[in-house]
Each structure stands twice: as C-alpha cells, then as structure tokens.
Amino acid sequence: MKLSGELVQWNDERGFGFIAGDDGVRYFVHITSIARIVNRPRAGDRVTFTSSKDREGRLQAMMVAIAGAIPVRHVKSCNAACRRKRDR
Length: 88
Fold this sequence. Notes:
Blueprint: E1 3-11, E2 16-21, E3 26-30, E4 46-53, E5 59-66, H1 80-86
Antiparallel strand pairs: 1-2, 1-4, 2-3, 4-5
C-alpha cells in the first residue's frame, strides 16, 4: 500500500532522514530507498512510499518517490562530442 508524507529531517552527509507520514507515523528513510533523482532530498519534500519493518521491528520507508523530482534517466548527458561542440 502506498503511503504519503513529508520528509521532515534529512542528514545529507550520512544519507538518511525521517518522514512524517500523513497517517501520523514517523518513518526512517535511507538514501538507498529513494528513487534516483537529479537533486538531493531535502526537508520539506513531499513523498510517496511503502513501509516495512527493519530487523529490530522499527518502521522504515521503502521505494520512496519525491513529488516533482526529476529522475536521473531524464537528464541528458553530454558525451565528448557534445562537450567539444559546447566549448566552441
């Protein structure tokens, strides 16, 4: 079941944070559970996710998608030929 909420805390150096679910529950989130996006996550981002429990029974967010974020695959990369053309 998909849940939604807001990323209320994010530690970019350590790659984890917490989501306040719209259901009133707080979820741990790790960077590896967030879909690859162009920009880093930040507090205030609206998210959708699924939940599970870790080995110790704590709630964690999985398959997290940040609303409005641009997926990495949609960013046009610039190969060597592109860079030569751009630098002229």
